[in-house]
User: What shape does this take?
Amino acid sequence: MSAEPSVETRHLSAGSEVTNILGTSCAGKPVAGSFIKHWEKHSGCSRSKCAAQGCLNEAKEGGHVKIAGGPLSSLMKADWWIIPVCKTHNKGLSCKSYKVDSVIAVEAPPKFNERVRSWKHDFEKLGQYLKEKMSKLSI
Assistant: This one.
């Protein structure tokens, strides 16, 4: 049996902004069995509260995020990370980008087909962002 590859972790300070990655529900499950278990194993932590700043809900899921605020900067980021979140904050359409409390993010490298599937959603978010900006410029 081959050893599991090393997994990078990154400390996010309180107020760091993350952007949900849409289209990851079909992503291959990690060796640990679930994304929240993957986060617990590699962060060395257990967390009962959602990482989203101000959220008091229980963190029952490992949410895929990019460490970048907003659709423009998140398009430029290729790295995928897992943070502990509640069901509400794991739904990209409901929260888009948000700030987090101090938390350890755990690397979750996507397979090529998973990355391609997420691009569609990234471009939809970009289109929505540009539409909102253009509507504010209208007189």
